[in-house]
Structure formats: C-alpha cells, structure tokens
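Retry 2 of 3 after timeout on previous attempt. Resubmitting structure tokens to design endpoint.
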C-alpha cells in the first residue's frame, strides 16, 4: 500500500499531536484532596439553675408628712390690690379697645385678690388679658 505525500504528513501531524497531549496530561500535577472538615462543636448540656426567689427589700421608715406652708393672704392681697387699682386707673384714660381689655383685667385682678392669690401667680393671666396693652408698673 502506497501512501501519498499528503496522507503521510497528516499521519505525522496526528502522531505529534498525540505525543504533545500525552506529555501534557502526564505533566499536570494532580489536585490534592481538600482538608477534612472541622469536627462539629459539642453541645453543652444545660445546667439546671435554682429557681429565682424574690425577697422584699427594707424600704426604711415611712416619709414624713409634708406640712403645707401657711399663706399670708394679707400681704399678697395688698400688692395685688395695688395692681388692680393701677389697672382700673389706666383703663379710665385708655382709648378703646385697650379700655375694655384693662377693665376686664382689673375685674380678674379683683377676683384673684379677693380669693387670696399671689401677684406672681396672676400676672401672666392679666398680661394675656390685656392683649398687648401695657402692664402697669404696680403689676410688675
């Protein structure tokens, strides 16, 4: 059997390729097996705890009853009465609508003075009632 020149070249090339593939397969390093997985952690056994006991604490002696300070209505009414008088006096000479505001504030002031309120507790309400009209100096 006689081979042609082209088939002879093809056989040689095939043999060369087989040789290269065989050498490359032999030259490849084999993969190492993966390291073993770590062992599962041991489950701790539950520890039986003693039941919780609640004990009452000593609260100490009871608090002293609070003594209410005596209100001195005469002094508070006197200074509040001066404020009320100043409001009435300013209302006489004030133009409307301030005259109405001052008259109403004077009536509130008189009621607070009659009930024994302190000036400091009522001045804010009086100032709000005046709606921007001036607060007399006796009320400040």
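Retry 2 succeeded. Sequence:
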């Amino acid at each position: 059997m006689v081979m042609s020149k082209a088939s002879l070249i093809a056989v040689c090339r095939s043999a060369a390729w087989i040789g290269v593939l065989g050498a490359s397969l032999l030259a490849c390093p084999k993969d190492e097996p993966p390291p073993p997985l770590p062992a599962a952690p041991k489950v701790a056994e539950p520890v039986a705890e003693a039941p919780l006991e609640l004990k009452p604490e000593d609260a100490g002696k009871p608090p002293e009853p609070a003594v209410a300070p005596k209100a001195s209505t005469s002094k508070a009414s006197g200074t509040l009465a001066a404020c009320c008088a100043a409001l009435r006096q300013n209302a006489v000479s004030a133009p409307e609508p301030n005259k109405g505001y001052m008259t109403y504030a004077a009536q509130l002031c008189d009621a607070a003075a009659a009930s024994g309120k302190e000036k400091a507790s009522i001045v804010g309400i009086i100032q709000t009632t005046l709606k921007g009209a001036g607060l007399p100096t006796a009320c400040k």
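Attempt log closed. Residues 71-76 have pLDDT under 50 and may be disordered.
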